[in-house]
Amino acid sequence: MGLFDRLRGGWVYEDDADYVIVGTGAGGATAGKVLAEAGHDVLFLEEGPRLKTKDRPRDAIGALSGSMRQAATQTTAGPVPIPVLQGVCVGGSTAMNSGIIWRMPEDVREDWITNHGLASLVDEGELERIYETVEEDLEVSPTGDDVLGGNATLMRQASEKLGLPGKPMSRNAARCDGKGECLQGCPGEKRQSMDVSYVPRAMAAGARLSTLCRVEKVWIEGGRAVGVIGSKMDRHTRKPLGRFRVRARHVIVSAGVVHTPIILKRSGLGGLVGHRFQAHPGAAIVGRFAEPVRMSYGATQGYEVPMRSRGFKLESLSLPPEMLAARLPGVGAEWQERVANLDCYTQWCAQVRMEAKGRVVPGPFGPLVFYQPTARDLAKAKEALVLICRMMFEAGAVEVYPGIGGIPEVLRSPAEVDAVEAQKWSPAAIHLVASHLFGTACAGANPGRSVVGPDLQSHEVAGLYVMDASVFPTNMGVNPQHSIMAVTYRAAEQLALRGGARQAA
Predict the structure, then answer these.
(1) In this model, does residue 98 exceed pLDDT 50?
(2) How far apart (Å, rounded) are the C-alpha atoms in residues 361 and 79?
(3) Helix, strand, or coil here: 344?
(4) What percent of the chain has pLDDT over 90?
(5) Does residue 501 carry a pLDDT above 60?
(6) What is the mean pLDDT of residues 268-289?
(7) Rounded to whole angstroms, how far apart are CA atoms 329 and 56?
(8) Phi, psi of 238 (to 5 degrees)
(9) Residue 393 — pLDDT band, cuts 50, 70, 90?
(10) How many Å apart are CA 303 and CA 143, to the nearest integer?
(11) Can you tell me the distance from the alpha carbon of 186 to that of 337, in angstroms, rounded to the nearest whole number?
């Protein structure tokens, strides 16, 4: 036991609040902003550091190491691991995503009402009001032509030629100046991620923030959540310095789809906690053009082709040069020649709405995510990637690099795409990455089929709430951040009304 432990009777840090919120991503930040502005005493606990945008590394490796869990090396378990991307810093994954905004599709909302009893949570009028509020707060607007950039512009051209339903992305970055550095944190803080928007707004309203606090379990007494317990982490080594505890009248867990169920399980919750893990795994294809594309300029993601009826969505996705170079095929002089023309490439990706359901369980060295796409999921992925290849040639590509195992590294004509489409692709051939995650603490009116109720309070433990994408009973087929914020905003407003005013000091 260290000096601080002895001085504090075994705890290096103790505090109390009306509401303790575990996590500062889209869910936690929104809940904190609503509750703090309603006059409640709110304490944010964030496992990662608070990274000032101006101080964040501008190289991709440095950015990933400092802001993403396991430096973006976290994967699913099983024979074909899939990288699972999650932020671990103030702002969570919003601090390095592209700020893409989609309202919840109506078919998803109706499904949640009909099959999960969530009519009060996703009331149409209330969600409309909340969307309008959030969109004004976060400066949401379509990506303008002036910052679309060559990568997205070529995708638009291909979409129009093929008659596809493409459109500029709506993003929380109306003042974007096209530096293409969303991954590293917007240099001028023009993208309204949670670390530069709702967390500071909550703090302006009186909320407090304690970083480098890894919550391990909910503190439960008499069947009610009364706080949280965890470890205070060293900023540089990320190793525990000692134990902390926070007492609160209400606990809100917003630690993300992978870590929220782990906290709940450590706290003694059972049932369907950790079940129904769902995702939008995606893959990307690179194309080479004869003339410069200038991927380095423009919104990191500016154009999309939603194909919901076919189960996928196509997106432009620019990469930093060091990551783009790693995607190029060839060795020796051939590879060097391609790298010498680094300004001539596009990269477009497919996000697939997969039917597969997995599970998150505690492991000896951290959470284990068991997840395996079905044959139908992989067929959809193949369809989407083949379409991207065709789009690139339609836009004028001279070479296309599928990056898919077992097929040619370089395609030079649409006829070669036909041949690739006719081949049977191995399940391990497609290199998927999962960034949109859902489930593991699903909401629903029936306690036998869900973890939290329509108010997002645990069916098992009073005063314990989950407010992140863990509560989504289904995946969506579109980017989830806006819907996470909307349902959290709705639940937090209801909680603020029930929770009473801030207690006098």
Answers:
(1) yes
(2) 17
(3) helix
(4) 82
(5) no
(6) 97
(7) 30
(8) 60, 30
(9) very high
(10) 8
(11) 31
Distance (Å, whole) CA 442 – CA 124: 20
pLDDT (tens digit, 9 = 90+) per residue, 282-306?
999 999 999 999 998 999 999 999 9
Asked whether the CA dihedral 53, 57, 61, 67 is positive or negative, the reply is negative
Rg (CA), the chain: 23
More confident residue, 279 or 9: 279
Q: % helix / strand / coil in the chain, to the nearest 5?
A: 35, 25, 40
In 138-180, where does DSSP find H-type helix?
149-162
Q: What is the DSSP letter of 318?
A: -
Catalytic residue, candidates 259, 436, 459, 482: 436
Token code pair at residue 36: 């703090």
Report the DSSP pairing between strands 312-316 and 303-307.
Answer: antiparallel
Q: Find the length of the chain.
A: 505
> Whole-prediction pTM value?
0.94
**11: which residues sit within 8 A by CB, 6+ positions away?**
5, 242, 243, 244, 245
Binning pLDDT at 50, 70 and 90, where does residue 267 land? very high
Contacts of 467 (CB under 8 A, 6+ apart): 21, 27, 28, 30, 31, 252, 253, 254, 456, 487, 488, 491, 492
Taking 80 as the threshold, does the pLDDT of residue 63 lie above it?
no
CA gap 58, 183 in Å, rounded: 9
**Pair of tokens at residue 235:** 């900023």
Beta strands in 154-262 (DSSP E): 167-168, 170-171, 208-211, 213-221, 224-233, 240-253
* Residues near 230 by beta carbon (within 8 Å), at least 6 away in sequence: 45, 213, 214, 215, 216, 217, 243, 244, 245
Is residue 171 pLDDT above 70, yes or no?
Answer: yes
Let me know: does 472 contact 461? Beta carbons within 8 Å. Answer: no
Euclidean distance between CA atoms 401 and 285, whole angstroms: 6
Measured distance CA(103)–CA(484) in Å, rounded: 10
Nearest to 180 by CA among 150, 136, 215: 150
343 and 295 Cβ atoms separated by less than 8 Å: yes
Q: CB count, 10 Å around CB of 221?
A: 9
Tell me which architecture the domain covering 52-88+91-100+142-194+275-438 has in CATH.
2-Layer Sandwich (3.30)
Return d(Cα 385, Cα 183) in angstroms, integer: 23
Is 436 annotated as catalytic?
Answer: yes
